[in-house]
Amino acid sequence: FEFVYNYLYLANLRANWDEVKRQAEKAPQPEARRYVLPLSIDKADTGKNLVTLPYTTATATLRSDETVWLEPEVIFSGPRHAFEFPQINYKKYCGKPYTYTYGLGLNHFVPDRLCKLNVKTKETWVWQEPDSYPSEPIFVSHPDALEEDDG
């Protein structure tokens, strides 16, 4: 909390940039993770992985006390790079299988790139330009789009 409250004010970022970077390196490594929540559970499946999706390594295991233990699949992790505010093409893919998500990339807690992530292959694309500081991405589809990521 001290880092957030003391260093991330704009005046402190401008005055103490080297100190901000030094403190940011102590922060936990951010990751984008996929959790899979089973929608139907049979008590006979106790101890088994309830996730049957072929494209993920995430697991959900029913325990003997009838709780479900979730283990995520890490779909994005990079040294000192975050993937924040993930967005998809909600207009066409909300509640449906999708392939691409877009996020705000941060380096040392400063947003300085936009990222596109293929959640199936984990391939990433990055847009970044010097002295550019984007904000949360919002996907805007091309009016005649045929592909999920046409926008």
From TrEMBL:
Keyword rRNA-binding: no
One GO term (biological process): zeaxanthin biosynthetic process
Pfam families with a match to the protein in the record: RPE65
Phylogenetic classification of the source organism: Eukaryota, Metazoa, Chordata, Craniata, Vertebrata
Coiled coil: none
GO cellular component labels: plasma membrane
Molecular function terms from GO: all-trans-retinyl-ester hydrolase, 11-cis retinol forming activity; beta-carotene 15,15'-dioxygenase activity; metal ion binding; retinol isomerase activity
Signal sequence extent: none
Major subcellular location class: membrane
Annotated InterPro entries: Carotenoid_Oase
EC number annotated for this UniProt entry: 3.1.1.64, 5.3.3.22
Source organism: Corythaixoides concolor
Stated name of the protein: Retinoid isomerohydrolase
Keyword Chloroplast: no
Keywords annotated in UniProt: Cell membrane, Hydrolase, Iron, Isomerase, Lipoprotein, Membrane, Metal-binding, Palmitate, Sensory transduction, Vision
Needed cofactors: Fe(2+)
